[in-house]
Design goal:
alpha+beta; three-stranded antiparallel sheet
Length: 175
């Protein structure tokens, strides 16, 4: 009579199921961790560009659609003047909370009194003007309110060279 070798007991199905569950849990945790890292880093959004403005003779900030961006001289150090009905004429340039605004110059953000996040340039909140009907308009320039509205200037236009005097032809007539 031959003795049979004791067979190895089969792995219990519970162990295999447990191993699979742990493996799946680790994969889910790894994916969730990667998504968390992505969502906590600041999102960026291009909100402005530069344009040479012939009327002002300067390079100014505009929206991505070419509309002039303005700031109010009295809005400094986190102080807001343009609130309530003012924002129906002067539209705040806003971005979703946590978004880093991008443009041709360094831009920042500030929290508005109603809670929205407004884009700033040199510490001043930026607005578009409903009196500008097309790209390049600067109808809001110099409007006086509780301060003065000015286009957000990034650079002065390069000075035009002076015309050089042209040599005069010699006159065939004596003096």
């Amino acid at each position: 009579m031959r003795r049979s070798k004791p067979s190895r007991p089969a792995r219990p199905p519970v162990r295999v199921a447990l191993f699979a569950a742990v493996l799946i849990a680790l994969l889910v945790a790894a994916i969730a961790g990667a998504n968390t890292m992505t969502s906590t880093s600041a999102m960026t959004k291009t909100v402005a560009k530069q344009a040479k403005n012939a009327t002002l003779g300067r390079t100014i900030l505009t929206t991505t659609k070419g509309r002039t961006l303005y700031s109010l001289s009295a809005e400094t150090n986190g102080r807001f003047i343009c609130t309530g009905t003012c924002t129906s004429t002067w539209h705040p340039l806003v971005v979703p909370a946590g978004t880093k605004p991008m443009g041709p110059v360094k831009l920042g953000t500030i929290k508005r009194p109603e809670g929205k996040t407004q884009v700033t340039f040199k510490g001043r909140p930026l607005y578009s003007f409903n009196g500008d009907s097309k790209a390049g308009d600067v109808n809001g320039e110099g409007i006086k309110d509780v301060g003065t509205w000015h286009a957000a200037v990034t650079a002065k236009a390069a000075p035009q060279p002076e015309p050089q005097p042209q040599p005069q032809p010699e006159s065939p007539y004596p003096y």
